[in-house]
Design brief:
Length: 105
């Protein structure tokens, strides 16, 4: 019986830690402002459809679920990073799939 209680306690502890890590991950979303960057020079953006696109950029710290603010026709538009892959060389270059959001939460 003690073994069973110990297993349940370990399971509850692992669920709690997993939950805490998920909350920490959600709170750690960042917004990266690229409105002062120059398209074609600082980054390359390609439309996939009217609300999503692919971007290639450089710099560390952009992660999945972060937000990027880009300017299109002098209008800032907020996107969420759906997926991101970093290049091996240079290590700070990345390619990401973006989806437009109404505004940063």
């Amino acid at each position: 019986m003690r073994n069973k209680i110990a297993q349940i306690t370990r399971f509850k502890s692992s669920l709690y830690l997993s939950f805490q890590n998920s909350i920490r991950f959600l709170k750690s979303r960042k917004t990266h402002n690229y409105t002062q960057s120059i398209p074609g020079k600082d980054y390359v953006f390609e439309w996939i459809d009217p609300i999503s696109g692919r971007i290639t950029g450089q710099g560390r710290g952009v992660r999945q679920r972060d937000y990027l603010v880009l300017k299109h026709d002098n209008t800032p538009i907020c996107y969420q990073v759906e997926a991101i892959d970093y290049y091996a060389d240079p290590a700070d270059m990345w390619c990401a799939l973006l989806k437009q959001v109404e505004e940063e939460p």
